[in-house]
Design brief:
Shape: globular
Number of strands: 0
Order of helices and strands: HHHHHHHHHHHHHH
Largest sheet: none
Helix content: over 70%
CATH architecture of the largest domain: Up-down Bundle
CATH topology of the largest domain: Growth Hormone, Chain: A
Radius of gyration: 21 Å
Structural class: mainly alpha
CATH class of the largest domain: Mainly Alpha
Distance between the termini: 51 Å
Length: 381
């Protein structure tokens, strides 16, 4: 369930609020891009959060739950503050615009910090609870819940905000804040066993730097490089696929929106196939590599859809991109779980999450910049 809350927050930040701030609130696209990118600044710290959760000493005997809880509070606080800050920032509330700008920036940072903290601690807890045989199913389930949170949130929020007003925006975002709190409380309830005897153990002498040096072996670094490159490749199309269908193939808004649905369907198929193959003993590295090959074939289909003028080819390409991304994501996350030694799951999954989130965010930004540059060059000629 914590993945559902993360997916809901991701849709709000990068989808719904992105459009609302530009269209309904009339904010500058550059300001909006800067605001939406603020949560990315916390992504590189996921490895440190994971390390701290590995060695946390709690009076109540928990390691992961405190980080899940405080991540939830950060996410809740950011979402509770965000709509009011946006309204003040655009002159629709009481107070100077500067207060709204500072408040919106703080809100985006809080939501980003909460999302990354909650997801890192949650994945580490899932690794602690799952044995080696059940991990592929656990990984696939975690991704399915993330995708379900994104899809359901996008549909519900889109319909509720169809008749936009400032009051409606406050209601939707604050409802998301309350739902985040409820989902994550249920998610962490009685999941981690309490071990008060751990309080009697001496604090770990190894620092984060020393632990990272021991963790970052050549095999680990190769996996993280592959995660970064693959995440960047699959994420860069996020801001390109629908405009490609509209500008190149002259598809309607409804038709291009259906590409996202096909992508999500492909992701679900990829998750399901990956879980079955891994349960049968397949190597997660090979599975992730196969997902990359599927992705290459998918992007070739998208490329050739333009010259051939074939919407069907574009649709198959979107479906196949989702399938390749699903295979790659489950394979690399399973491989990252396998890297974790006893008590080091947080560091391993934090490193995976830091590389994956940072690479994806930078790739989306580079994709948007490349599209604008090419469009400007074409317009000049």
């Amino acid at each position: 369930l914590f993945q559902v809350s993360v997916g809901m927050a991701a849709v709000l930040l990068t989808g719904t609020l992105n459009r609302v701030m530009i269209v309904e609130l009339g904010m500058s696209a550059a300001v909006v891009a800067a605001m939406v990118s603020l949560p990315l600044f916390f992504a590189p710290l996921r490895a440190l959060v994971g390390f701290r959760s590995d060695h946390h000493r709690s009076v109540l005997g928990w390691k992961r739950v405190p980080y899940l809880w405080f991540g939830t509070l950060l996410q809740f606080g950011g979402l509770a503050l965000l709509p009011f800050a946006l309204l003040v920032m655009t002159g629709r509330g009481d107070g100077p615009a500067l207060v709204g700008q500072v408040g919106a920036g703080v809100a985006f940072l809080l939501v980003g910090a909460g999302m990354h903290t909650t997801q890192t601690a949650g994945l580490a807890l899932a690794t602690d609870l799952a044995d080696e045989k059940s991990r592929p199913r656990v990984v696939a389930l975690l991704y399915v819940m993330l995708l379900a949170g994104m899809l359901v949130s996008a549909i519900v929020i889109g319909r509720v905000l169809a008749d936009f007003s400032g009051t409606r925006l406050v209601q939707v975002v604050q409802a998301a804040a309350v739902l985040t709190m409820m989902l994550n409380i249920v998610a962490l309830w009685k999941q981690e066993a309490r071990d008060r005897s751990a309080m009697l153990l001496p604090a770990p002498a190894r620092s984060f730097g020393a632990s990272w040096t021991a963790f970052a072996q050549p095999r680990t670094v190769r996996l993280l490089v592959a995660v970064g490159l693959g995440a960047a490749a699959f994420s860069m199309q996020d801001v390109l696929l629908e405009p490609y269908g509209g500008q190149i193939l002259q598809l309607s808004v409804g038709a291009t929106t259906s590409l996202t649905a096909l992508w999500a369907l492909g992701m679900l198929a990829g998750f399901t196939h990956a879980a079955r193959r891994l349960a049968d003993g397949a190597d997660p590295h090979r599975l992730a590599g196969f997902g990359g090959v599927v992705g290459i074939a998918a992007f070739l289909l998208v490329i050739f859809a333009g010259p051939t003028g074939s919407p069907a080819l574009l649709a198959v390409g979107a479906l196949t991109i989702g399938g390749g991304a699903g295979l790659f994501s489950v394979g690399t996350l399973t491989a990252a779980m396998a890297l974790s030694r006893e008590g080091d799951a947080g560091l391993a999954l934090g490193a995976w999450g830091a590389v994956q989130a940072t690479a994806a965010g930078l790739a989306i930004a580079l994709g948007a910049l490349a599209r604008d540059a090419v469009s400007a060059a074409v317009a000049c000629t």
